[in-house]
Specification:
It is built from three helices and two strands, in the order ααββα. By secondary structure, the chain is mainly α.
């Protein structure tokens, strides 16, 4: 049973790492939207490819995130990612600890 507990805690750690990396990507994409970089730059294209599907989904679901031409979808995405990171990660870690019997 301890092997499954270790697997659960490892998955929790990896998921936390992926969520934190995506939070960093969202923050960088939000900052880049302020300076209007070259749209043909490979880094800018990659950041937009990673974030625009999520931002589009937020804008479509919550139309009030566009306020006077200011897009607040990165803030909503960051809040959702923090909530996901907190709730899911704590739940997985507690499950892993409960399986080990600690």
């Amino acid at each position: 049973m301890f092997v499954f507990a270790n697997l659960v805690t490892t998955v929790a750690g990896l998921l936390s790492l992926v969520i934190n990396l995506y939070i960093f990507v969202v923050i960088v994409a939000a900052f880049l939207s302020w300076v209007k970089p070259d749209p043909y730059n490979a880094i800018v294209r990659t950041l937009r490819a990673l974030t625009e599907p999520v931002f589009y989904r937020i804008r479509k679901t919550l139309p009030f995130v566009m306020v006077n031409g200011i897009d607040l979808s990165p803030i909503v995405a960051l809040l959702a990612l923090q909530l996901l990171n907190g709730v899911v990660m704590q739940s997985l870690l507690q499950l892993g600890l409960r399986l080990t019997g600690v």
